[in-house]
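Backbone-to-sequence.
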């Protein structure tokens, strides 16, 4: 029975840099696949890869652990950068929308800001695997059951941060109609979430 191939041992930053450059295209492809569409509109895969390279070269000792696959470690570093970017953009969106949404749109259950934060996280999450809890996972599933118009209105409102009047112009509808659709959709999602447990 053959022994597993040992992880490459890099004698210095130059060898590690050579390894990274040799696998850069694979790492970029992996990063691009891992970014969700909403996050991709704000973050370039190449930027994530650059951050990974800087982090790797700043701490080369993490690549010296026996049996550790260096490319897998690069992918793990990329995943962490994606999660950090996701948190950053979700946080910025939540701060700018939470107060406004609680005034503009009736939120069932009186838990407006917390629900809006989870909603934004669900829309922007690069993968369901990054869900922090079961509620967010169920919310992602519930959103997949909405019709295309509802999904688009949610995306425009909570990801692009557009006011309802601008969404109305894009959709060829009245501001009032968009507000009603938004309110009903949020209520529908919360009811679906509640029914899930």
């Amino acid at each position: 029975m053959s022994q597993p191939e040992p992880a490459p041992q890099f004698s210095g930053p130059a060898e590690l840099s050579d390894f990274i450059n040799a696998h850069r295209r694979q790492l970029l492809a992996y990063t691009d696949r891992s970014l969700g569409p909403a996050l991709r509109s704000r973050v370039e895969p190449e930027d994530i890869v650059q951050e990974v390279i800087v982090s790797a070269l700043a701490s080369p000792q993490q690549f010296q652990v026996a049996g550790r696959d260096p490319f897998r470690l690069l992918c793990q570093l990329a995943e962490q950068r994606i999660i950090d970017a996701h948190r950053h953009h979700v946080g910025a969106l939540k701060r700018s929308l939470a107060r406004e949404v609680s005034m503009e749109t009736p939120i069932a259950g009186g838990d407006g800001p917390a629900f809006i934060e989870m909603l934004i996280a669900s829309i922007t999450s690069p993968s369901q695997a990054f869900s922090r809890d079961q509620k967010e996972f169920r919310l992602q599933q519930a959103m997949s059951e909405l019709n295309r118009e509802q999904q688009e209105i949610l995306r425009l409102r909570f990801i692009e941060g557009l006011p309802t009047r601008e969404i109305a112009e894009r959709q060829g509808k009245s501001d009032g109609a968009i507000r009603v659709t938004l309110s009903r959709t949020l209520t529908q999602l919360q009811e679906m979430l509640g029914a899930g447990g």
